[in-house]
Amino acid sequence: MVVGSPEEAERITPRVVENVRRSALTGADEAEAYDQLSLMGVSAEHIAKRTGRTRTEVRDALKAMKSTAGDPTWPTDAPSRKH
After folding, report:
1. Element (H, E) at 2
2. Which of 10, 18, 44, 71 has the most beta carbons within 10 angstroms of its beta carbon?
3. What is the value of pTM for the model shown?
């Protein structure tokens, strides 16, 4: 787990947004990216606004990360939802 500064969050947020929009990230990868941003102080609302996801989708992904923390059965190859 990496926790950075607000400045680092601002620096990596565009990369996360680009990856979510361009790449076929797995659901787990996308949730992990949201979790990292959240740990840096970025709100679920801001993540949703920047990625084009709904607040509910982002919040659900963050909840899933918390409930599966350290779970080796967390699916890493599940496809993410595309809009």
Report:
1. none
2. 44
3. 0.67
Phi, psi of 79 (to 5 degrees): -70, 145
Domains of the chain, CATH where assigned: 6-68 (1.10.10.2830)
pLDDT tens figures, 28-47: 888 998 999 999 889 999 99
Give which of 44, 18, 46, 41 is closest to 31, Cα–Cα.
Answer: 44
Number of residues that this document lists for the chain: 83
Tokens coding 76: 């890493």
**CA–CA gap between residue 57 and residue 61 (Å, rounded):** 6
3-state secondary structure of 79: strand
Q: CB–CB of 52/13 below 8 Å?
A: no
